[in-house]
Amino acid sequence: MRTLPLFSLIASLTFFVNAQRFVRFISTDNREYYGDAILPAGTTDAAKSTRARVIDGDILGDFKITDRVKAIKKLLAPLPSERVRTVRCVGLNYVAHINETGQVIPKWPILFYKPFTALNSPSDPIPISAGYQTQGDFVSKMDYETELVIVIKKRAFNISDDEALDHVLGYTVGHDVSHRGWQIDRGGQPQPQYSMGKGADGWAPWGPAIVSTNVIGDPQTLGIWTKVNGVTMQNSSTANMIFGVKHLVSFFSMGTTLLPGDVIFTGTPSGVNLGKANPVWLTDGDVVEVGLENVGTCTNALKYV
Ligand SMILES: *[C@@H]1O[C@H](CO)[C@@H](O)[C@H](O)[C@H]1NC(C)=O
Ligand SMILES: *[C@@H]1O[C@H](CO)[C@@H](O)[C@H](O)[C@H]1NC(C)=O
Ligand SMILES: *[C@@H]1O[C@H](CO)[C@@H](O)[C@H](O)[C@H]1NC(C)=O
């Protein structure tokens, strides 16, 4: 059988051509690299990776996965903030979260934007500046929101649901840091003021890796959770999203071009403080882990600055 070795040769070449988990990191030589993370045995959390195959070129364009392996000293956000021209976020995309906040199920996806200065690494502190801290009778209602994040690889305008995944590089997990004081109490009720409540610098940690659509063929089957100081607060599945990944990409491309590197935060499941009778709002020093199955975790501490 001569076809068998040839087949395995092609299979192994394919393995090196398709990156699985795109990361950006500082290595022990203090230089920055892009890489394809090598997972340690027994975990799919790229935040635990200590090594990666270096990627040469542009992960949003032409690139090559080399056989040079580098140690990971620190994982950075998967792309530099300036390469992400638009951070789109979806409000109200899980029925149980809509219920807990007493709102109605939307007929169309609800969109707001964060500035790209909100993006943060999967491990650095989340800065809380004075205007977002408790002052007098204004309570700093800091909340957590775990979300699946879509990363666009190819321009998309007016595309259909069926075309959507051709435009997606992969998926990662993000933390839509939320301040209910500015979002709602000072939000021009009855309308929420999403961007003032969610758009501050560093309020969108994301990573630890962009996991390729080769690895995650169906993004609507993944466990998604939040832990605050080690205690599970949110624990759901992306199967519960009202508007799935394909529809969000297609809907947002209706009259607006999605560009390579743009990200879409896809809404949070239930379990947030806002939905609780006795909320324990986050404060200085609290550590929040957001996680997505087969992708990994971002773990960031709040820091009053
Ligand atoms: C949401 O609330 C409605 C009405 O109370 C209820 O029928 C439904 O089961 C709830 N769904 C979830 C997912 O909590
Ligand atoms: C959008 O796509 C539809 C369906 O393919 C097509 O009929 C329409 O002309 C397109 N509109 C624009 C502005 O490209
Ligand atoms: C979420 O719930 C599942 C099923 O009950 C459980 O196996 C898993 O450990 C929970 N995850 C977290 C982070 O608590």
TrEMBL record:
<dbReference type="GO" id="GO:0050163">
    <property type="term" value="F:oxaloacetate tautomerase activity"/>
</dbReference>
<dbReference type="InterPro" id="IPR011234">
    <property type="entry name" value="Fumarylacetoacetase-like_C"/>
</dbReference>
<keyword id="KW-0378">Hydrolase</keyword>
<protein>
    <submittedName>
        <fullName>Fumarylacetoacetate (FAA) hydrolase family protein</fullName>
    </submittedName>
</protein>
<dbReference type="InterPro" id="IPR036663">
    <property type="entry name" value="Fumarylacetoacetase_C_sf"/>
</dbReference>
<dbReference type="GO" id="GO:0046872">
    <property type="term" value="F:metal ion binding"/>
</dbReference>
<dbReference type="Pfam" id="PF01557">
    <property type="entry name" value="FAA_hydrolase"/>
</dbReference>
<keyword id="KW-0732">Signal</keyword>
<dbReference type="GO" id="GO:0016787">
    <property type="term" value="F:hydrolase activity"/>
</dbReference>
<feature type="signal peptide">
    <location>
        <begin position="1"/>
        <end position="19"/>
    </location>
</feature>
<dbReference type="GO" id="GO:0006107">
    <property type="term" value="P:oxaloacetate metabolic process"/>
</dbReference>
<comment type="similarity">
    <text>Belongs to the FAH family.</text>
</comment>
<keyword id="KW-0479">Metal-binding</keyword>
<feature type="domain" description="Fumarylacetoacetase-like C-terminal">
    <location>
        <begin position="87"/>
        <end position="301"/>
    </location>
</feature>
